[in-house]
Amino acid sequence: MEKFSRFTDIPSGAGPQRCLSPTRLRELQPEAWAQQDGGPCSGEAEQQPEWTDVQKKIIPWKNYVPDLDLELVLRDRAAKLGKSISRLIVVASLIDKPTNLGGLCRTCEVFGAALLVVGSLQCVRDKQFQHLSVSAEQWLPLVEVRPSQLPGFLQQKKAEGYTVVGAEQTARSAALTHYRFPESSLLLLGNEREGIPANLIQQLDVCVEIPQQGITRSLNVHVSAALLVWEYTRQQARPQAPSRLRSRAETARSGQMK
């Protein structure tokens, strides 16, 4: 105790008292233990009640039945939004940077993608991810598929009828301006530095690239993904019937005449 003697002159009212008496310590009883899985402390959990809802939308791939659960997720989300949801699956398991993942999550949610696949669900707790996603992860279904699991995952989705599209520049890549996305499309995105590895390129049904005019070799992966997701959305949008367009135009003209 001698090494603490120089602090004896600190007044008792200098700050909050955080010490418990021996009697009080003996009266304390342990509470039921609950696993946190590396998540926030109980205080943070109380301040963020919506986290439970986020976790309900996050289903690890190895623990879910794709044929059933994905359909249920699509129907539930479509009912909540009051609009149809696309059948586009965006696979970002090879992407490392949380800023790219956060921006991609926001883009996929805005354009109504069915699912975003990431390499680790821990990314949603990253502050940089959250800064870019602006809570989009609460509305977009996320699935964890690690890079080592991608070959099996892609093969499974192909068996389910999905066309596996790779965002990659190759000698046989189709230009985005000329490519027509099937309704059930899976978009595989490459790593920021290395792109899509050769073993996965062999599993692709088609590679699509974005035509460029400048000298810089490629776009940022999130920017490329945003262009591809938007083009899919544009192609799949149902055009209005000509009769409905004419009726709206006639209504507008009659209103102007009045």
UniProtKB/TrEMBL annotation:
Family: Belongs to the class IV-like SAM-binding methyltransferase superfamily. RNA methyltransferase TrmH family.
Subunit relationships: Monomer and homodimer.
A Pfam family this chain is assigned to: SpoU_methylase
EC number: 2.1.1.34
UniProt GO MF annotations: RNA binding; tRNA (guanine(18)-2'-O)-methyltransferase activity
Domain of life, per lineage: Eukaryota
Name of the molecule in the record: tRNA (guanosine(18)-2'-O)-methyltransferase TARBP1
InterPro entries the UniProt entry points to: Alpha/beta_knot_MTases (IPR029028), SpoU_MeTrfase (IPR001537), TRM3/TARBP1 (IPR045330), Trm3/TARBP1_C (IPR044748), tRNA_m1G_MTases_N (IPR029026)
Alphabetized UniProt keyword annotations: Acetylation, Methyltransferase, RNA-binding, S-adenosyl-L-methionine, Transferase
Region (Disordered): 1-22
Primary enzyme class: transferase
Transmembrane segments: none
